[in-house]
Amino acid sequence: MQVSPSLRRLWLMVSAATVMIALVVYLGVVPVVKGHHVSLRAMEERLLSDSLLPDKISAAAVSGGMSRGGSFSRPASPAPSAPRSLPPSGDGSYGYRSAPGPVIMPYPTYAPAPVYVGTGGGGGGLFIVIVVLGFILLPIVFNYLQGGTRRFDGPATVGSQSELLNDIVTITRLQVALLAGARDLQRDLDTIAVNADLNTSAGLTAQLRETVLALLRHPDYWTHVGAESQTVAGREKASEYFERLSIQERSKFRVETLVNIGGEVQRRAMPGGPSGEVASHIVVTLLLGTADDRPLFSTVNSAADLKAVLQRLGSISPAYLLVYELLWTPQDPSDSLSADELIANYPDLVTL
After folding, report:
1. Is 115 exposed, middle or buried (0-12, 13-18, 19+ CB in 10 A)?
2. Dmax of the chain from CA atoms?
3. Which of 60, 139, 211, 255 gives 20 to 30 Å between its CA and that of 11?
């Protein structure tokens, strides 16, 4: 088959255009989009940080206690189960034996349509090669560009193994303000924080339940509440979000007079001696990272809502509790948190 010069030139022009488009996409669009993703993520992190950290936190004048354990690292995948036993074969042996001769694969019942390439020149073959490469490369490029959004699938079924092993994590912050008359709550939190087993999931869950019970025993002292529960796609991003929340709350303390991280307990003296102000409130903060694929609650606006949320947190199983941090202020019995300090450092709390 003789290809006319005009048709050959057309093939060469189409081939050259296709190659140019592929090069532009690969060398120009992909790096720009990749950088765009990075800039968007940086902007998101900056906005998130700005929204979490207030512009100005008043100078704290109270002591604080802190206890923390757990990790956002992915749990070890369960070992694959042993293969099921195969029924005995005809000769009494189990399973399959390797064939003594070559294995003959069945030939497909269909045949691809033949491709005819003109012999008058290489333009047609080059065009077909470019088209084939385009069909191969385009899905790869689209998968690369969409990798960030397709990395995390939708929420898994509640209680399923997929929910425990995927990268979707829920970060929860619950803050409860109580009247300072609940002084025995401070002693209970001291005991819970010092004696907690923070190196095991069971010990971490036990500490959470004891904290919840201590709060549930003082409903008459509840005055304010602040609560949020947010799902984060990605354990690394969840860890960063959790750390920002932790730093935000811990920065409200002048000094952490009691700290227990991973079982290492440290105590510090209250600077300046006992506070001369009249005690007004106690604030207890619970920070949790769980394997739930959905928020643990929506809103908390009443004492009944707070009770229900506390019961929900107290029922979390050890398999789902990844990280737990307990914060409370004031920790030192001689210290106090005034009403003005409560308003200045915890402006988002809702009055019960």
Report:
1. exposed
2. 103
3. 139
Q: What are phi and psi of 152, to 5 degrees?
A: -115, 120
What CA–CA distance (Å, rounded) separates 2 from 16?
22
Listed in sequence order, the residues at least 6 apart from 236 whose beta carbon sits closer than 8 Å to its beta carbon are: 72
* pLDDT score at 73: 87
Asked if 234 and 152 count as a contact pair (C-beta separation under 8 A), the reply is: yes
Q: How confident is the model at residue 309 (pLDDT cuts 50, 70, 90)?
A: very high
Sign for the CA dihedral angle at 296, 301, 307, 308 comes to negative
Q: Which helix (H) or strand (E) holds 328?
A: strand 321-329
pTM across the whole model: 0.62
Residue in this structure with the two tokens 């073959």, named with its chain if needed: 125
Within 10 Å of residue 24's Cβ, how many Cβ atoms?
11
Residue 192 identity (one-letter amino acid): I
pLDDT tens column, 193-230: 999 999 999 999 999 999 999 999 999 999 999 999 99
Least confident of 29-43, 133-147, 188-202: 29-43
pLDDT tens digit string along 117-140?
A: 454 555 556 667 666 666 676 656
Helix (H), strand (E), coil (C) string for 192-260: HHHHCCCCCHHHHHHHHHHHHHHHHCCHHHEEEEEEEEEEEECHHHHHHHHHHHHHHHHCCCCEEEEEE
**CA torsion sign, 89 to 93 to 94 to 98?**
negative
Alpha-carbon distance of 124 to 334, in angstroms, equals 89
* Structure tokens belonging to residue 238: 């969840």
CA distance 335 to 64: 10
Q: Where are the domains of the chain?
A: 1-52+121-161, 54-74+167-351
